[in-house]
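Hi W.,

Here's what went into the run:
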Amino acid sequence: MTELDTRPPRAVDVPALVKPDRVHGSVYTSQEIYDLEMTRIFREGWVFVAHESEVPEPGDYITRRIGGEPWIVARGRDGVVRVLANRCTHRGNRLCNADAGNSSSFRCPYHGWTFSNDGTLTGVPMRNGYGEQFDAVLNGLGLKPAAAVDSYRGFVFACLSTPPKTLLEHLGRATTAMDRLLALSPTGELDLRAGWMKHDMPCNWKMVMENNVDGYHALFTHASVYDAVKPAKVSHIPSKVEVWVRDLGDGHSEIDYSPEYTRLDEEFVWFGRIRREKLPRYVAAMEEAYGPEDTHRAFVVGPPHTLIFPNLFLAEMNIMMVEPMGPGRSIAYTTPALIPGADELNEKMLRRAEGAMGPAGFLIADDGEIGARNQLGLAGPAPEWVVLSRGTESDLNDATGIVNHDKSAETPQRGWWRHWASVLAGQASAGSDSDDKGAVHA
Amino acid sequence: MPDLASAATNAPVTGDVPASGVDPALAGFIYLEARLADEARYSEWEALWDDDALYWVPMGPGHDPRVNLSYIYDNRRRIRSRIAQLNSGNRHSQTPPSVIRRVISNLEVVARDVDTTTIASNFALFEYRFDLIVWAGRYAHRIRTRGGDLKLVSKTVHLVNAGGPVSTMSFLI
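Here's what came out:
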């Protein structure tokens, strides 16, 4: 799609762009804002890069882009997962050109420089050309590592420059969502190796992220599914369900189906209401690992529907990560969160992922279309603001964040934008959130 | 299930099939299927399918749908759902339908058994929606002959850009 932002460039005045109940339309279209996001969010903050199951063995590697930059995620002989700049330190050639593989070293095809998968420069052909400086060249030109790499229960995050806070501080309350997903795995592990759908969407990356926790759109955007194919798992009419939305702080947010599922006290409402008799080995492994009570509870409350700032979405039994490609283009990567050993479940999970997600999915194809039309609409400069005031008067503060018992409230979006503004303004320093929470509710 | 991936990519001719011998009626069936898809004639397109249908768009060559995610892996029931959604008028990503024309060539018979024939072909598809998008790849159509009637048993679509990224693909590819 053609980029339609024809407004003149302007300096980014972040506080002027985000109000508690609305954001300026240019946050989706401006190149200047996009450039600032790449710096503040993707180069200076924590971002999701990979899952440990994608590089299970020493030598395994995958390649990823973070904020437009090429990176390698590689597991070394020592078992450590490293995030290394995918760029030869000699003349800048992209070093590793496969999506995934296994290799103890990477050799640049341009002049034959060779790097170990821990980043060490191990081979420089025709070394005499460097004379006395050779050792200095060898020692000083290893692959550039990400400034910080850390993981939470298999989810690997990186920060490309000195992190302003620890990963746990960045994740804040969002760890509860990862715990909720892992509570469905008898081994406490996931397997993200079914392959990523890469869905090219002509819209801003934030539109993709925000929409994932929009509890208001389903009846309209996805009417074709519920009317023509099958009814929703539980009603999307807010007054009929105990489905809550929650701003978890730190930019993280969710749609929480667990109150409704708990009220129903019915297992697997979130998985086509499959009966546990159809999954005997999985149920046995779960009860062995967690006991019957916790297993029942996990099967009832189901997986998270949680956005983790800035680029990760725990899409119930799928994982989505979103890569910005410019103000008007994004790639959404989606793969099912397979459960090691749960074969009875995993093949069904593949089919469910194909049904709902990705470029031909019954749901996401239409979300992509709505995103594209949003981008086209926002090319018009008036009215200046996008309104996010739904549910402002019914937001409740509690220990879990800011909760709204109306699933159509725009509480998650308000949380996203409040945090976005604090990060872009360079205020996302040490300490966990709640900091930026006060700004709105003081 | 026949190994359609290798049939589509390696084109091994099995049985006593002359390499160039594509029955004009089978070729005509493939062109009809393409035209109905191009023209968003959804219900007519659905009627081409047999009960044991498989409409498959893998994410790479040699993939195993039991362990690899696909873009589309529709059995007959899901094809029915897909068409019901397209016919609803609210499938926003195809409302209005994309303007599409596709060209199919290089037809070869790659497998044949008692009542089915598998024909591989190349295609180029031009989709106009917000912009012109070009799709290309290799098809494998498995067609059943029953009496004088032809039914589509499976259609596999190996996109040249299966590795992605790919644009929204909610039209019939």
